[in-house]
Structures are given as C-alpha cells and as structure tokens.
Specification:
With 283 residues, the protein is an all-beta fold. It is built from no helices and 16 strands. The strands form five sheets. Strands 1-3-8-13 form a four-stranded parallel sheet, with no helix packed on it.
C-alpha cells in the first residue's frame, strides 16, 4: 500500500513601481493512520514565496540659454557747437533652477510567514516507510536603476556701441554705457531608494509526529526553511554646467575739435554662479 498526501503552495508577486507583499496565515494539517504492513506513507508540504521589485528611473533635464545685447553707436560731428555723445548700457541676466527628486519605496516580501504546517502518521504496520517533509522557501529581490542627467548651457554676449565726438568747433563729452552678463544655475537632485526585502519573514511553524509504527519501519521527519533576498541599486547622476560669456564696451572718441570734452568708456563685467546638490540614499 502506498499513501501520499502532497500540498504545494506557490505565491508570487512582481511589483513594478514599489509596494508590499503580504503573505501568511495559511495553515495545513494532514494525517495518515491505520495503514497496513509494508505501506509507504508520505506527508509533503511545500511553500514558495517569490517577490521581485524593479525601480527603473531615467531623468534628464536640459537648460539652454543664448542671449545677446548691444547698444547703438552715438556720433556728434560737424557742428559749430556739439553736445555730448553717450551710448546706453547692455545687460544680460539668466538664472536656471532645477530640482529633481526620485523616491522608490521597497518592501518586497514584507509580511512573509505566519503560516503553519502539521502532519502526523500513526498506527502503521510493520516494515512501513513513513516520511513527513516540510519545505518553506522565500525568495525576494529588489532592483533600483536610477539615471539622472542635468545639463545647463548658457551663452551670453553684451556690447555697447562707440561714442564719437569729432569735427566740432566746440565738442562735448563722449561716454559709452556699461556691458554686463549675469548667469546662475542651481541644481538639486535627490534619490531615495528603500531597499528593504523580506521584512517580517519567518513566523511560520512546522510540526510532525510519527508514532505507533510496526517493527522494521523507516520513519523520517524533515523540515526546511529558506529565505533568499537580494538588493541591487544602480544610481547614475550626471550634472553639467556650461557658461560662455562675453562683454565689451565700445570706444569713446573725442578728436578733431577746437574745444573737446572728456571721453569715458563704461565698465564690462561677467558674473556666473553654479550650485549643485546631489543626494542619493539607499535604505
């Protein structure tokens, strides 16, 4: 006589954007009794929990700016009495602010366990083979793949025109305006990957009993518990800030006048500011 009871439980979950797998509370109870001589009796329970979590994030931000500013020329010439020549100012201002935040919630396999398995074999005949086997397997994996790219590109030019006072009996002053460029880039990148796997594993129980067996019988009780967990975090962050600036003032000329005023050029300035903050957290 051959008596066999086999229980197989398979629980799996694939989480694409993060979540929690709660498994447990299952109970299995089996018994074999009153079998004849030379019988083969088996109680087998197998539980398998599979959980996988994939976080695949790709972010790219590009800020591109190109500016040009120029003022016209000012000319006073060929007059008996000439006034002043003055050009205006030329300015460029650019500011780029980027904030990127990536938060991946893990917890694959959370809440495993809580199940129970029990088996009993009794009152079997002589020479019987009696086996109780329980196998628990928990498999979980977390994969975080983050790629973040930020590129700030800025090109600025500012020019003031020339100021000319010439060929006058009485000439005024020649003055050019100011030329300036200002650029600022602020970049904040935050990556937070929660990589907990298999949280709450265990809690299951297994019990087996074999009794009142006949002479020459073979009796075995085997319990196996296995928890497997893997975590993979692949984070890539690239931040590039490029600034190209040019500022110049035009010429100021007072010449060829019987009475000439002053010649003054404006100031030329460039200002650039870059601030980058990157935070990566794998918990």
């Amino acid at each position: 006589m051959k008596t066999q009871i086999k229980r197989v439980g398979l629980l799996s979950s694939a989480l694409l954007t993060g979540g929690i797998l709660a498994v447990g509370g299952a109970a299995v109870a089996d018994s074999i009794y009153n079998t004849g001589p030379g019988s083969s009796n088996n109680v087998t329970t197998t539980w398998t929990n599979n959980a996988s979590l994939w976080n695949n994030n790709h972010l790219w931000v590009g800020n591109f700016n190109s500016q040009g500013a120029s003022s016209g020329s000012a000319n006073v010439s060929g007059n008996t009495t000439g006034g002043s020549a003055m050009t205006g100012s030329a300015y460029n201002n650019n500011n780029a602010s980027t904030m990127a935040s990536v938060m991946n919630s893990g917890g694959a396999g959370g809440g495993w366990g809580g199940g129970s398995s029990s088996g009993s074999i009794n009152t079997t005949g002589p020479g019987s083979s009696n086996n109780i086997t329980t196998t628990w397997t928990n498999n979980s994996s977390v994969h975080n793949n983050n790629s973040v790219g930020v590129s700030n590109s800025n090109g600025q030019s500012a020019y003031t025109g020339s100021a000319n006072v010439s060929g006058n009996t009485t000439g005024g002053s020649a003055s050019t305006g100011n030329a300036g460029n200002t650029n600022g880039a602020q970049t904040n990148v935050t990556l937070a990957n929660s990589s907990s796997v298999g949280g709450g594993g265990g809690g299951g129980s297994s019990s087996g009993s074999i009794n009142t067996t006949g002479p020459g019988s073979s009796n075995n009780i085997t319990s196996t518990f296995t928890n497997n967990a893997s975590v993979s975090n692949d984070n890539s962050v690239c931040v590039t800030n490029e600034s190209e600036q040019e500022a110049s003032t035009g010429s100021a000329n007072v010449s060829g006048n019987t009475t000439g005023g002053s010649a003054t050029t404006g100031s030329a300035s460039n200002s650039n500011n870059s601030n980058t903050t990157v935070m990566v957290s794998n918990n």
